[in-house]
Amino acid sequence: MKLNAEQLRQFAEEGYLFFPNCFSEEEIALMRIEGEKILKLDRQEVWREKTGAPRTAFAAHTFNEVFRLLAHHPRLVEPLEQVFGEPVYVHQFKLNAKAAFEGDIWQWHQDYGTWARDDGMPEPRAMNIAVFLDEVFPFNGALMLVPRSHKHGTLQAGHDKLTTSYPLWTLDQETVTRLCAEAERPGQPGIVAPTGKPGSVLMFHGNLVHASAPNITPYPRKIIYLTLCAVSNHITKFTRPEWIAHRDFTPITAVADEALLEYARAHRIAAE
Amino acid sequence: MKLNAEQLRQFAEEGYLFFPNCFSEEEIALMRIEGEKILKLDRQEVWREKTGAPRTAFAAHTFNEVFRLLAHHPRLVEPLEQVFGEPVYVHQFKLNAKAAFEGDIWQWHQDYGTWARDDGMPEPRAMNIAVFLDEVFPFNGALMLVPRSHKHGTLQAGHDKLTTSYPLWTLDQETVTRLCAEAERPGQPGIVAPTGKPGSVLMFHGNLVHASAPNITPYPRKIIYLTLCAVSNHITKFTRPEWIAHRDFTPITAVADEALLEYARAHRIAAE
Known about the structure:
Two copies of one chain form a homodimer. Chain A has helices spanning about 5-15, 25-40, 65-70, 75-85, 110-120, 175-185, 260-270, and strands at about 15-20, 45-50, 55-60, 90-95, 105-110, 125-130, 145, 160, 170, 200-205, 210, 225-230.
């Protein structure tokens, strides 16, 4: 998947791009089944909310074939190679559960803030590409983005180890208020919260400020976050476990576009 | 304001009605200024979140002229007289702040569950009519309703005194999951979350199941909830303070439709 000139311009200007229905229902059904299995596993890569509900599963691409294919998928890898102008590697792979009723808050933050401070990543030449496994409604913890906030570089942040089970470098209320006010346009607030069917994809700049509210509905909101980093921009500090911030900087070679579909069909045949 | 046959049918079927821009910008500007003043008051009627941010101010219609006019406003009073077929009185008057960054959750509940259990209200012949003082966006704690859930009568509930600063009879996750599943329609989830400009009005049945998520954005979401009860259905138990569950069952005589506007204009002239 290649971005056109208008998409590249919009990404540079707004800091994000949204692709509704980027993966088919058949591809997503496969990933959803595998995702649910992984969130039930009792292993160090699966973190839980304070209530015990799953919060985040790391590194599923290293132990699950479906997610290995996803991490090498041309619809995700090619746009990022294009933006960075060089090959990319997998810096992080997360499945965020945002479980029904129990999925907790992610406070306002920039991803690159964590990658720089904790992992010694030289430049914000890495970013998240989110794949919706469930439908994202306005009310089940949709990701909220502050458009254009990536232009401010890396903002001052505090290390929040208390609010949730996951430590995060978060922004203060004054900063978020200022950025949202700057992002307002006539008749429009300074926050966008893309919603869409399973299979939709959202890519956003490593410095784009974002957050998500708790999910208090019966509708889970599982999203895969694939973080791809330009190979020349690999991390230099190894303070976090290898399965959170990967140390294998091998450039990704994309699989075929139909790889997930073929797996789904072969798997179904094998299961019958 | 009178409801037409289609609105009456929709209310009976769905359990709610939404009126965008029911009050003008001038009327709302007046109420917003007064509302902000009230939320700063240090008096027993103003409850705070655990963080200290304002949560709910009760009974403002008893000590503020603008809100006295609102509680007697024909756009709110007449539809409820029409639905109940008799005069109404003010059972409760709340300003819910859902403050920027700090407005906390309201768990899933039915209002009549509280009125019946705590106040001995005989029948669900009272309801809330919500007036948006701020713009309600999908992301700043919009009220979530489960359509048609009012048809289940009063559901079993537990008394939650821990989650927030306000005790509430709340429904369990299984019940909410079941009601949402029943409320689903092809391509539509079992939750609606009406959004709209300040001045929009939402009326909903006393047994309609609803909740709202925390507000983690810089956009406050102040809503006035005027609870009107059919006079013949007045409460019979006085366990809560008078300023939470009123004991004056005098039928409301509506003021003129332009009463708020006239107050705004007179007030502005007086202030100059």
